[in-house]
Each structure stands twice: as structure tokens, then as C-alpha cells.
Design a protein that fits this description.
Helicase, Ruva Protein, domain 3, 457 residues, Rossmann fold, 19 helices, alpha/beta
């Protein structure tokens, strides 16, 4: 919809000129020739921005701006004057003006300023809406988000929470896979039982086996007493196997036997012990790619992948970035006893533009830093890390006016494929699906470009 603008100037011809010029640029314009009439109109109706002359009889531009800011704080006011001085500009900003433009006035310049003002208002309203969403608790367990992608995840989690089915949670690092596992456990029939978690990448193979399955007394050096493994510790509860893609090949068949037979043989023991656990596994690796590389057992993969929950990366969750940012601001401001209540529009725009390779974990770190550094009650652009302040979204060039900018078709294909790989976190299975290629074709192209087929390609 066209942005609604209220123009205020005691010169009727100026109002008519601005109405004509701004209307041609897509704005919907009303105008008034007195500050008193404009104030009544601004308070009675909802405008995206107000443009006012400074020097008017009766209620002047500064007074009008001040009254609008007091009563309609989300409506940006642009002040125009023929008397461009530092004192006048400071006076306009002091009473809450969004921007300050001097005559002689160029309609194109005013239109650009109004575009920014309208976007600023929209972002401010979005931040306000998201603060309300945080208060309403649009979440599943500790997962927070209101985007379509997260609502799809919530719907699936609702349906599987009370089942006994094994679940495989996939997603990039920092997307909240353990939060999913904890939320499923908290809503299951096993919620009174233990929730036990282990990172399969955090320890060597021999120690991992002992941790998972336990060991008998004397099973190895220093095994002075018998020890129950995590499967037994999680009896009648939930065992969360994080980073399952990093599990050593030697341990995988032993895990498969436990999943199939529901019995555990501790290291060095002669007898097996029955266990009753629900398994939730998680990985940020491309398990299908690991299958092809013979680095993960196919039978174990299908035993784990009964129901797959795919967590979207933060860059695919739209305005959830701001909802989560507001949540973290509330948390860290409370811990630090600082009066930080929100995010200014330009800072919010930077957060929405950034691609968040570290996902929610990176955003949490960013907001903790911002709350610690800010000197104001709202996060500003200067409070954000330099890489976020200076970030520019990458684009694949598909058209150009200058022939020197055009590239061969193979180069366009290469750039696009690499951009898709970046967008899906280097998950080649997902990239193949997006590109409409089979995995072998994608691998051949990457090898031709010297990119290899490993996870660090």
C-alpha cells in the first residue's frame, strides 16, 4: 500500500506542488495550511510520516513536531525550512524530528528522506510487535519464534512429543537442536524420567564406549569400580546423542545393537542389561553424504532417521531475528540491571540483513555484547559488532548494462551453485535438492572447480 504522508505549509501553492511531486513517486498525500488543523488531522488519522514547514503562524513547525512526537511517537516528522542553520537543526532534532531539510527544496530528495522515514516507522512497529510476541511466549519449550518455518517445526514437535519414536534433529550449528530434544522430553510421557545428553564428538572412541555403555570393574586400567553408562543412567527417560555424525565407525555397530535389541553390554562385562530409553540424535553434518563416503553406517542411519526434524537456519526465519534479539536483550539487561528496552530501527535493519552463519548462538552473543556496550536504553548500530555493521549481502549477477560486467554461463552457474551451498550451510544433499541436480553431478562440478567434496569444500 502507498505510504500516507501529511504535508503542512501555510503556503497553499507549496502544498499543492509537494502533493503533485510526491504522488508521482507513489505516496498518498494529504495537506493542511495551518499547524492547528494539521495537529488535529495527525492525531485523528494514521500517517506514515509528516512533512512540516518550520515557520508558520500560530502553531509553528517545531511546536507541531513536538506535539506529534508526544502523542504519536511512532510517526516520523520531517521539518522543512528556508533558514538552514545549525541552531535550527538542533532545535528540530531536540523536539523529536526524524530529519531536517532546507529550502530550496528538491522533491526527489524529500522522497528519499520519506522512504527512509517510512521504513524506520515500519521497523519500529515490527520491533514493538515482536516485543509483544516475546511476552505472549510464541515458543515450544525454550525454542522461540513466530515465523512460518518455526510454526512448521512446532507442529511436527507437537505431533511426535508423546510418542516413543526415535527422532533425528538436523540443522546448522547454533540452531537449537538440544533445545528441541529437551522440549520433546518435557512434553513426553517420560518427562518424570532423566534427560541425559552427550556430545559424541567430544571424546575418543574408547572413552565414548565407556560413557555410553558403562564398564565392569577391572575392564581397563583405572577401572577400579563398575560404572553405569549413560544408557542406564537415562533408563525410563531420554538419551540425547548430539553430533551423532562424528561417532567413530567402531562404535556405530555397538550403538545399532542397543537400538535394535534394547540391551546394553558394559565394556568388559559378560552379561547384558535391558534398557528403556527414548533416543533423540542430532547432527549438523550431511549424513547422506557421509553414507556415500562410507563414513556412517547405512543401517544405523535408517534406525535413527525414523522421524527427522529439520531446524531452519536463522537467515531463513525472517523477523524471528528481531524477536530473538528482543528476548536476549530482556535477559541480559535483567542480568546486568541495565535499562535497555529495545532496538532502534537502523540497528534492527542491520540484524535483518546479516546472514548469521553462527545462527541463534551468534545472535545471542551479539546481543549480550550490545547490552554490555550500549550507553542508551535502545541498541544502536554502533553497539553491534563491526562484521554486522559493515555486512553487505552477496548477490549473483544475472544481468548488467555494462558488457564488461557480464560473465560466461559456466561462471554464472559456478557462482550460483556456491551461493546455494553457502545458503544451506554446505549441506550437499539439500543443495542438490534446491539446484535440481543429483549429488554425483554436484560433486563432479565441485571437483572440476577444485572445490573437493569434503565438508570443508
Amino acid at each position: 500500500m502507498a505510504a500516507r504522508i501529511l504535508v503542512v505549509d501555510d503556503d497553499e501553492s507549496m502544498c499543492q506542488m509537494l502533493e503533485a511531486g510526491l504522488s508521482r513517486r507513489g505516496f498518498q498525500v494529504d495537506w493542511r495550511t495551518s499547524g492547528e488543523a494539521a495537529l488535529q488531522q495527525a492525531l485523528a488519522d494514521d500517517y506514515d510520516a509528516v512533512v512540516t514547514d518550520l515557520n508558520m503562524k500560530g502553531v509553528n513547525g517545531l511546536q507541531l513536531c513536538e506535539r506529534i512526537v508526544q502523542n504519536r511517537p511512532d510517526t516520523p516528522v520531517v521539518v522543512i525550512t528556508a533558514f538552514g542553520s545549525l541552531e535550527t537543526a538542533v532545535g528540530a532534532i531536540r523536539v523529536g524530528a526524524y530529519d531536517f531539510i532546507t529550502k530550496p527544496l528538491e522533491v526527489a530528495q524529500l522522497a528519499l528522506t520519506l522512504d527512509r522515514a517510512v521504513k524506520h516507522r515500519a521497523l519500529s512497529q515490527e520491533v514493538k510487535r515482536l516485543r509483544a510476541a516475546v511476552s505472549e511466549g510464541r515458543q515450544f519449550g525454550e525454542l522461540l519464534g513466530a515465523s512460518p518455518a518455526m510454526r512448521t517445526v512446532y507442529d511436527l514437535l507437537d505431533r511426535i512429543a508423546d510418542s516413543e519414536t526415535t527422532v533425528l534433529v538436523t540443522g546448522e550449528s547454533g540452531t537449537g537442536k538440544e533445545l528441541v530434544a529437551r522440549a520433546l522430553h518435557a512434553r513426553s510421557r517420560r518427562k518424570a524420567g532423566p534427560f541425559v545428553a552427550i556430545n559424541c564428538a567430544a571424546m575418543p572412541e574408547t572413552l565414548l564406549e565407556s560413557e555410553l555403555f558403562g564398564h565392569a570393574r577391572g575392564a581397563f586400567t583405572d577401572a577400579r569400580t563398575a560404572r553405569a553408562g549413560l544408557f542406564l543412567q537415562a533408563h525410563q527417560g531420554t538419551l540425547f546423542l548430539d553430533e551423532i555424525g562424528e561417532m567413530p565407525m567402531g562404535t556405530q555397530p555397538k550403538l545399532l545393537r542397543v537400538l535394535q535389541e534394547r540391551v546394553v553390554r558394559p565394556v568388559g562385562a559378560d552379561t547384558e542389561v535391558a534398557v528403556d530409553v527414548r533416543i533423540i540424535a542430532a547432527t549438523n553434518r550431511d549424513l547422506e553424504g557421509l553414507l556415500e563416503e562410507k563414513r556412517f553406517r547405512e543401517d544405523l542411519y535408517y534406525r535413527l532417521n525414523v522421524i527427522k526434524v529439520e531446524l531452519p537456519p536463522l537467515r531463513a526465519r525472517g523477523s524471528d531475528v528481531l524477536l530473538l534479539a528482543q528476548h536476549f536483550i530482556d535477559v541480559f539487561a535483567g542480568r546486568a540491571s541495565k535499562n535497555v528496552v529495545g532496538i532502534l530501527g537502523p540497528a534492527a535493519e542491520k540484524l535483518l540483513t546479516y546472514h548469521w552463519p553462527g545462527n541463534v548462538r551468534e545472535l545471542q552473543n551479539c546481543m549480550e555484547r550490545a547490552v554490555a556496550l550500549t550507553r542508551f536504553d535502545r541498541i544502536t548500530v554502533d553497539d553491534l559488532p563491526e562484521k554486522i555493521r559493515d555486512y553487505r549481502a552477496s548477490h549473483v549477477l544475472v544481468a548488467a548494462q555494462d558488457p564488461s560486467e557480464l560473465v560466461p554461463m559456466e561462471e554464472v552457474e559456478k557462482r550460483y551453485i556456491l551461493r546455494v551451498l553457502e545458503a544451506v550451510g554446505n549441506n550437499k544433499t539439500m543443495a542438490s535438492r534446491v539446484l535440481g541436480l543429483d549429488r554425483k553431478t554436484l560433486y563432479r562440478k565441485l571437483e572440476r572447480w577444485g572445490m573437493g567434496t569434503g565438508d570443508d569444500a
